[in-house]
Design brief:
61% helix
Length: 469
């Protein structure tokens, strides 16, 4: 597809096909999903899916493996990768807010086979930060803690090996920030909602994750037997442990109650995202057709039921060591996250190449990724590196066949899915001069909702926006 005649902001006029695709239809297999989400909804869906059991309980496993300094290093480095991934996804989702998000982008800008293979509570965290400061200062508990545990047992549990092991944990716990891109297809005003959500979600996640890792690192030693580890059948949240040992039993019980709420919140967000991804795959022929069916209100009920059934895999942790199963699931999820993030960066690079090849200026984009191409290429390289680096400890003496399989099994599986679809469907690598960079754009800008209108700015306002929204 070559250069197009353009109208306002360098966008071509909507064709009959474009208008038809935007209209509601009575066919439940092709009806568009309901579009009523605002920026605050996008933010809470993403945050609700991330600040959940992973942060509140899984952070204890990270502390056990890497120590207080090790988890700060791994989570900070992965946080930088998340920033550039969100920038890339924000540029694509703002211009083309489609339900399939990066799954559909992969099909358009790389290869259909790649698309097939891809196939909160905020207040409680803030309160914990305040209590953590008071506890370390000696306000609660038997004595002042300070940075005692950074000296004994020390800042690192296993040196560089411990840091390497926690990269997949960081990847898994950060996974979900890309939910903003998937929800973009159901927003009423993506050009305003998506960039705002991209910015707010990143800063909030970074604040809560780095903050939580810092405080649990000074409140608990990494060798505390109550932390989740490979041999444990059950484990408590590091937040609960630290509050209990400080003698604040009511607060510890409250955290346990909030963990239950966080699990429900994270489950809701995950079901939302998985069902929308399944709908796109079903409607593009990569999953059974019946999974793409929606109700008259645009709810993908078939995909939701299917997602709930698949979610039952979580019960694998019952009946065997919870820590062992948890670590395996965390590793698999972390590697999958790096693959998805790397794909998003690859798609972004190909999209920019398509713009250039088709004579379109980046100045017409409603949102542009910061520091492109350097940040995008660096994040792509970092994700590829982490996919292989995260599991190198399996090769250390003695070699662990089980750890090797868990750490790397997704790589051949992913490649096999790509090749299987490519050979079966005889797909070809998309040519930059022929890529579809038009479908999915909103050509008629909706009015800005009252709730989304810009508000007076200031330091206090910005801080409130980051913490509360």
């Amino acid at each position: 597809m070559g250069s197009k005649s353009v109208v306002q902001e360098g966008v071509r006029p909507a064709s009959d096909r474009d208008i038809a695709s935007e209209d509601a239809t009575n066919d439940p297999y092709i009806a568009p999903l309901h579009r009523s989400l605002k920026s605050r909804h996008l933010q809470m869906i993403a945050i609700g899916g991330i600040i959940g059991p992973g942060l509140l309980v899984g952070s204890g496993n990270a502390l056990h493996l890497a120590g207080p300094a090790g988890i700060l290093i791994s989570f900070a480095l992965v946080g930088i990768i998340v920033f550039f991934v969100m920038q890339s996804l924000g540029e694509l989702a703002t211009l083309m807010p489609v339900t399939g998000s990066f799954t559909e982008y992969a099909e358009r800008f790389v290869d259909e086979s790649l698309s097939f293979a891809l196939g909160l509570k905020i207040l409680s965290i803030t309160v914990f930060f305040v209590l953590a400061i008071v506890i370390t200062a000696g306000g609660f508990g038997r004595e002042k803690i300070g940075f005692r545990y950074w000296e004994d047992p020390g800042p690192f549990a296993d040196g560089i090996n411990g840091v390497a092991k926690t990269f997949v944990i960081a990847g898994t716990l950060y996974a979900g920030t890309e939910m903003v891109g998937i929800t973009a297809g159901e927003t009423s005003n993506p050009r305003r909602s998506v960039p705002l959500a991209i910015k707010q979600v990143f800063y909030r996640i970074l604040l809560f994750y780095i903050g939580t890792m810092f405080f649990i690192g000074i409140l608990l030693p990494y060798d505390d037997p109550q932390l989740l580890a490979a041999g444990s059948r059950t484990a408590a949240s590091p937040l609960t442990i630290s509050l209990s040992e400080a003698g604040i039993a009511p607060a510890a019980s409250l955290i346990n109650g909030l963990i239950v709420v966080a699990v429900i919140s994270a489950g809701n967000s995950s079901l939302y995202v998985s069902s929308r991804t399944i709908v796109h795959m079903a409607r593009s022929g990569k999953a059974p057709k019946f999974l793409g069916k929606t109700s008259k209100r645009g709810v993908p009920w078939a995909a939701l039921i299917f997602s709930n059934l698949i979610a039952c895999i979580a019960f694998l942790s019952i009946g065997s060591g919870a820590g062992t199963v948890y670590e395996a699931l965390i590793t698999l999820s972390g590697v999958a996250t790096f693959i998805v993030w790397g794909t998003i960066e690859l798609v972004h690079i190909r999209f920019r190449q398509a713009l250039k090849a088709q004579g379109q200026s980046v100045d017409t984009l409603p949102y542009r990724a910061l520091w492109y191409p350097y940040g995008t290429y660096a994040a792509l390289a970092a994700n590829v590196f982490l996919v292989f680096f995260q599991g190198y400890t399996a090769f250390l003496y003695p070699f662990s066949p089980s750890n090797f399989v868990i750490n790397y099994i997704l790589l051949p599986v992913f490649v096999l899915m790509v090749l299987t679809w490519k050979l079966a469907k005889r797909t070809k690598l998309a040519k930059v001069s022929e890529m579809d960079i038009w479908t999915g754009r909103r050509y008629i800008e909706e009015p800005v909702e009252e709730a989304d209108k810009p508000q007076p700015s200031g330091i206090s306002k910005k801080l409130r926006d980051i913490v509360i929204g």
